[in-house]
Write a structure and sequence with these properties.
3 strands; about 40% helix; about 110 residues
Length: about 110
C-alpha cells in the first residue's frame, strides 16, 4: 500500500515536471483517491495559481490575513454562486485589486 502511494506521487511529480518542461499554459486537475481535488493553473510552465483542497476558504482567509493585513477580511461576503467557479479565490483577489483594496505585491503569494 505504501508503495502504491509512492508510485502515484512519482506520477504526480512527473506531471508537474512535464508541464514545466513544455512551458504549458492551462490547468492541471488532480483528484485524490479520497475524492479531494486541486487545480493548478500554469502560464509558460510556471504555476501561477492553485485552488481546491478540503478547506479552500480557510486557506484563502489565512493567506489574506497574512499577506494583506490592512484589508478587513470581514468585508467579503460569499454566496454559493461566487464559489461555484474553480478559481473563485482568484476572482475575488482580482476584484479587490481593481477596487484598489489590495496591492498586486500583496496578492502574489508563494504556493
Amino acid at each position: 500500500m505504501v508503495y502504491l502511494n509512492l508510485v502515484i506521487s512519482d506520477d504526480l511529480i512527473d506531471e508537474f515536471k512535464i508541464c514545466t518542461r513544455l512551458q504549458y499554459n492551462g490547468k492541471l486537475d488532480i483528484k485524490s483517491a479520497k475524492g479531494t481535488s486541486w487545480t493548478f493553473y500554469y502560464r509558460l510552465g510556471r504555476i501561477v495559481w492553485a485552488s481546491g483542497g478540503t478547506h479552500s476558504f480557510r486557506r484563502w482567509r489565512r493567506q489574506m490575513t497574512q499577506h494583506c493585513p490592512e484589508f478587513d477580511i470581514n468585508e467579503v461576503f460569499l454566496c454559493a454562486e461566487n464559489t461555484s467557479l474553480d478559481y473563485w479565490d482568484y476572482e475575488i483577489l482580482e476584484f479587490l485589486h481593481k477596487q484598489s483594496k489590495v496591492t498586486l505585491h500583496a496578492v502574489v503569494w508563494e504556493i
